[in-house]
Amino acid sequence: MSNIISDVKKLNLPIGEYLVVGGSALAARNIRQYDDIDLIVTNKLYEKLKKDGWEEKEKVINHFHLYKYNAEVAKNFSHIEGCKLITENVIKNADIIEGVPFMSLDDLIELKQAMGRDKDIKDIELIHEYQKRNFQV
User: N or C: which end of the chain has fewer CB within 10 A?
Assistant: First the structure.
């Protein structure tokens, strides 16, 4: 299994301007493996990456993401119906693991609930199991 932390560090992104989200954030906690690196970034960083040659593609109508290597970058969560997460807030709420900012488990549950796919429901169950194992009082 590839190491999510070293893979993210290779991207050399500025702390405070990005956050690792989705399955990638689960991989950092050894909850499950990941296939690619999903990132949310500030508008400023998005524009810099675009200028630096990251490929921009339309993810859904009028919502674009950037792609390079095995990373996918979005500016916000507006393409996810019902998701009320705000980029700046989730970046501030980050859990820093070995110097890399990952989405907090609470924000991740909210994201996964909004997405609502079968794999998201399974991920929520995995998060709850992880929390029971690691945060029992």
Answer: C
